[in-house]
Amino acid sequence: MKFPNAAKGVKRIYTAEVINLIATICLIVAAVLIVVAVGGGKMASGNTGAALLGGGMIGAAVCALAWFVLSIIGFIMKLVGIVNASKDEASFKSALVFLIVSIVVSVVSAILMANSVGVAGNLLYTFAQLLEVFITIFVIAGGVKLADLLNRGDIGRKGTNVLKIIIVVNVLMLIANLVSSFMGGIAASVVAGVLLIVALVLEVVQYFLYLSFLGKTKKMLAES
């Protein structure tokens, strides 16, 4: 094995992204439950509306908790994986820098939102999402460079194509997140929820594309 650290790191990054995919699906379910609960609670009346709203919110809370726990596990696995891989390829070091910055931005965003500074918090959250794009870009770049060193042009080409698609998907995700962040009111909240669901579905598409590349890269490094 020519790049043992990268092999170990990419394997962990792959596992982390699988966990993050499951977490995102949990968040989609939570968002759908909230949209249905708010929309149904508004259309129904009396006890029926209250029961629909309460039941939907409880289900959403459970899914959101699952998302939170899985996201933490996925983040730790991803951090360890990038640190491992950075020992064999410099692009992963750049990914690590963006990952650290994204942690700081996400924490500040959460603090602002907790203190009702919604607009600034949402903007920082969107910025954190953008940083995640750069992390993905540098991880893919690291995989492509390793593929070139191992004379695996097929993996390099796949990485380049996946990267282009991921950039387009993330631009659409950012637009959906920004629009949903600045909408208020009950009707607007439902629309914002739908846009959030669209963004999350696009994120799932991105995960499958990303995982397909990581899976091939992991196999390539294991066989080197």
What do you see in this structure?
This protein has about 220 residues and is mostly helical. The chain is about 90% helix and about 0% strand. It contains 6 helices and no strands. The chain has helices spanning about 5-45, 45-85, 90-115, 120-150, 155-180, 185-224. Helix 1 (about 5-45) runs antiparallel to helix 6 (about 185-224). The model has no long low-confidence stretch (mean pLDDT about 85).
Overall pLDDT level: 83
What are the secondary-structure elements, in order, as H or E?
A: HHHHHH
Count the helices. How many? 6
Could you list the spans in which at least 5 consecutive residues all have pLDDT below 50? none
Summed up:
It contains six helices and no strands.
List the helices and strands and how they pair.
Blueprint: H1 4-43, H2 46-85, H3 91-114, H4 118-149, H5 153-181, H6 186-223
Highlighted features:
224 residues; mainly alpha; 6 helices
